[in-house]
């Protein structure tokens, strides 16, 4: 008996919560940070209500994701908060010469639930929700077994199946001939996720890519495995941030008895062809504005730094931004969350010749653990690093668009510009959706390149850094410490023992500082 079963997969969003920890100001004691915000007239109680962001969709929400916190997996049929948060416990304090200052810190955070579709059964269709995903030595990253090796038996070339004339014609119409597939596979070489598939997996990859690029429907693909469909779709989306008009997919199983003989694939398209074209024009304009100012340098570091700073300067973090899971939110609206930031960075870097891919995983914050997040892997000067533009943007530290003390938040936090695996995993956990390389180099880390990286607690080097920052008119002096030991020693000498006053120029009666303990960073405000 022949049967047909349709399955729909919809991408699950990834968003960011804000978390800020601040020390008390001298002469201003508050029971909590919330009380401090209320005193300033900033705190909006509703912003902090974790229940105000309800997932959209049907009554039941079913989440299938490698990025669901472990304690949530057994409750994945229920709605849950999907958010990110600030990487570090951020403390802002003020030092007064010869006056001891007390400390009273507290936390504030906003957590928003993401939308997900519900499982439902209508005839032969089943609906679930899923996450659409997301280079140290390239050799290390490519030598391991292909990611799809265990599901390789599920691949089956479409031309080996019993396709009828209509099915064959549909494939030919969008270029899925033997020659067309070979050409498409050549064009994908070098893309991070694509290169981690078997040859058969790469065939399915270009078939799905072509279907999405042409907004096609019900095209037979080269597999009889729904597991292969799920994995390869995620890999396509990880490599192609330009596909802003797809948030999932559906497929139809054709079977004889209990045996699946073929599968047809359809993207879940957010817009029709005319709307896609209209939005693409707007996106192209936004991309062109950014690329027009890009540096002409053979040193990849300066290109990556430019994109990092450009996006932070031109995007506001907003959990309510429309289209915040794709690049429309960035290039059209200028407001987004981590998925938008990361996909925009990936698109721009790729256009500038810097290989980049999307990384998904979870983050730990002071207020939550295992919160879904997205960032990037970049290849800088032939070495892989991690890049998290979202956590580099001070706007996500604010409350309702404001900060308790905006002058004590750097416009750009460079703690996440070209960082190692060791650094990123202090507060990020990388999902196993796509195998990532061990990023062990610090050569092109921002603080190393800018001579703000301290391998030892050498006060003579601190004095030189202060002098440089006064000369270049900087608003602050940032000290990045290589180890906890260096951080603790410099904190003790500069702050506890007040030696920072030896390096101040002009008014030396007081100085404010901000510390990021997770990333071992100290900022003094000039």
Brief summary of the model shown:
The strands form five sheets. Strands 1, 3, 6, 7, 8, 9 and 10 form a seven-stranded mixed β-sheet that branches. A five-stranded mixed β-sheet has the order 4-20-21-19-18. The chain has 15 helices and 21 strands.
Describe, in plain words, how this protein is organized in 3D.
It is a single chain. With 526 residues, the protein is of the alpha+beta class. Among the domains are: 163 residues, no CATH class; 98 residues, no CATH class; 76 residues, top7, de novo designed protein. The protein contains 15 helices and 21 strands. The strands form five sheets. Strands 1, 3, 6, 7, 8, 9 and 10 form a seven-stranded mixed beta sheet that branches. Strands 4-20-21-19-18 form a five-stranded mixed beta sheet. It has a five-stranded antiparallel beta sheet with strand order 16-15-14-13-17. About 25% of the residues have low confidence.
Topology overview:
Blueprint lengths: L1 E10 L6 E5 L10 H8 L22 E2 L25 E7 L9 E5 L10 E2 L2 E6 L7 H5 L22 H9 L4 H11 L10 H15 L5 E3 L4 H14 L6 E11 L2 E11 L3 H20 L7 H15 L1 E2 L10 H6 L1 E2 L1 H14 L4 E8 L7 E10 L2 E5 L1 H4 L24 E3 L1 H4 L3 E3 L15 H4 L3 E2 L4 H13 L4 E6 L2 H13 L13 E7 L4 E5 L1
Parallel strand pairs: 1-7, 3-7, 11-12, 18-19
Antiparallel strand pairs: 1-9, 2-5, 4-20, 6-7, 8-10, 9-10, 13-14, 13-17, 14-15, 15-16, 19-21, 20-21
Helix pairs in contact: 4-5, 5-6, 8-10
């Amino acid at each position: 008996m022949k049967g047909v079963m349709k399955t729909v997969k919809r991408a699950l969003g990834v968003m960011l919560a804000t978390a800020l920890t601040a020390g008390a100001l001298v002469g201003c004691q508050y029971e909590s940070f919330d009380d401090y915000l209320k005193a300033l007239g900033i705190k909006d109680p509703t912003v902090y209500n974790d229940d105000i962001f309800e997932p959209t969709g049907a009554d039941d929400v079913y989440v299938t994701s490698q990025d669901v916190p472990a304690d949530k997996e057994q409750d994945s049929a229920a709605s849950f908060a999907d958010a990110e948060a600030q990487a570090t416990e951020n403390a802002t304090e003020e030092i007064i010469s010869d006056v001891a200052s007390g400390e009273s810190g507290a936390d504030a955070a906003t957590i928003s639930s993401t939308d997900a579709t519900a499982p439902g059964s209508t005839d032969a269709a089943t609906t679930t929700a899923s996450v659409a995903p997301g280079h140290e030595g390239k050799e290390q990253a490519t030598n391991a077994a292909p990611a799809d090796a265990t599901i390789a038996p599920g691949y089956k070339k479409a031309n080996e199946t019993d396709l009828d004339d209509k099915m064959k014609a549909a494939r030919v119409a969008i270029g899925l001939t033997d020659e067309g597939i070979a050409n498409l596979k050549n064009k994908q070489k070098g893309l991070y996720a694509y290169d981690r598939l078997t040859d058969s997996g790469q065939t399915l990859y270009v078939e799905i890519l072509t279907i999405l690029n042409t907004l096609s429907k019900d095209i037979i693909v080269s597999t009889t495995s729904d597991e292969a469909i799920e994995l390869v779709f995620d890999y396509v989306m990880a490599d192609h941030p330009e596909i802003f008009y797809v948030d999932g997919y559906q497929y139809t199983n054709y079977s004889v008895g209990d045996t699946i003989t073929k599968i047809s694939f359809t993207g879940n398209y957010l817009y029709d062809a005319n709307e896609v074209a209209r939005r693409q024009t707007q996106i192209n304009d936004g991309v062109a504005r950014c690329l027009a100012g890009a540096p002409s340098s053979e040193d990849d570091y300066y290109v990556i730094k430019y994109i990092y700073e450009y996006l932070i300067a031109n995007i506001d973090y907003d959990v309510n931004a429309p289209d915040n899971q794709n690049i429309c939110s960035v290039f059209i609206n200028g407001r987004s969350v981590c998925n938008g930031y990361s996909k925009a960075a990936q698109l721009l870097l790729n256009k500038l010749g810097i290989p980049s891919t999307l990384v998904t995983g979870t983050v730990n914050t002071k207020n939550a653990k295992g919160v879904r997040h997205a960032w990037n892997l970049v290849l800088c000067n032939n070495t892989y690093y991690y890049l998290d533009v979202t956590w580099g943007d001070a706007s996500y530290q604010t409350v309702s668009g404001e900060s308790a003390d905006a002058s004590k938040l750097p416009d750009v936090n460079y703690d996440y510009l070209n960082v190692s695996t060791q650094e990123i995993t202090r507060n990020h956990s990388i999902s196993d959706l796509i195998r990532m390389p061990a990023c062990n180099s610090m050569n092109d880390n921002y603080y190393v390149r800018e001579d703000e990286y301290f391998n030892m607690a050498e006060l003579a080097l601190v004095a030189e850094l202060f002098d440089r920052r006064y000369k270049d008119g900087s608003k602050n002096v940032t000290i990045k410490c290589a180890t906890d030991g260096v951080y603790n020693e410099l904190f003790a000498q500069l702050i506890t023992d007040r030696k920072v006053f030896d390096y101040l120029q002009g008014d030396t009666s007081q100085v404010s500082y901000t510390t990021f303990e997770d990333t071992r960073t100290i900022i003094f405000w000039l």
